[in-house]
Amino acid sequence: MDKLGYPELVFLLAGLRWTILLTAISFLGGGIFGLVVALARTSAYGWLRMLSAAYIALFQGTPLLMQLFVIYYGVSLLQFNVDAWVAVAAAYTAHASAFLGEIWRGSIQALPKGQREAADALGLHYVSRMKDVLLPQALRISLPATIGFSVQLLKGTSLAAIVGFVELSRAGQIVSNQIFEPLLVFGLVGAMYFVVCWPLSIYGSHLERRLAAGSR
């Protein structure tokens, strides 16, 4: 029976690296598409609001595990040979865009109506009104919730193992099967998740307190 040694630790760290990379790509891609979703949800056009609402309902109302299956195996049924990394990144990006879009939609609509009215009174066109007046304030309000979602997204990457993507949890399972010490291995895996997630959670709480103090 093997013991937990240097090669196993390197393998777990490689899994952690892929977990962080997948989270970063999904969050960045989800942020870009999420902004589009948020703008569509607050659009003056009813069909855009309905379309974006349906998109959010689809990804918020179905399990992430099912979304991974559908995107990974569904693309294969269309005769496209998709690497697990590409399929997983696409699934998590779509998942993140729906949640971030709804978070930012709420922040935009939470702004006082006077902000929009003042921008209209200055004659600002839509792009300038959103870019220079509304979005900076809305994104500031949404920072705690956005950071909180990033923590959930990072922990949710453990589901990617179901389609063969070797992230931290899957790496832990492989090492555990080799050395037959699941408690030790998954205790170490949990500690790695904690080391990455805890600072983000603390930072989110700190921002929430600062914003609450600033609004008094």
Model description:
The protein is an all-alpha fold. Helices cover 82% and strands 0% of the residues. It has one domain (6-214): MetI-like fold (Orthogonal Bundle), CATH 1.10.3720.10. It is flat and about 70 Å long. Helix 3 (64-77) packs across helix 4 (84-110). It is built from eight helices and no strands.
Reading the helices and strands in chain order gives HHHHHHHH
CATH class: Mainly Alpha
The gyration radius over C-alpha positions equals: 21 Å
Please give the number of β-strands. 0
Strand content: under 5%
Question: Which regions have little confidence, pLDDT < 50, spanning 5+ residues?
Answer: none
Give the number of helices: 8
Mean pLDDT: 86
Q: What is the terminal separation in angstroms? A: 61 Å
| Helix-and-strand structural type | mainly alpha
**Second CATH tier, the architecture:** Orthogonal Bundle
- What is the count of distinct domains? 1
Output the CATH homologous superfamily: MetI-like
> Oligomer, anyone?
single chain
Shape: flat
Approximately how much helix is present in the residues? over 70%
The CATH topology is MetI-like fold
Q: Major sheet: size, sense and barrel closure?
A: none
Architecture blueprint of SSEs:
Layout: H1 6-41, H2 46-60, H3 64-77, H4 84-110, H5 113-121, H6 126-156, H7 168-179, H8 182-214
Helix pairs in contact: 1-2, 1-4, 1-7, 2-4, 3-4, 4-6, 6-8, 7-8
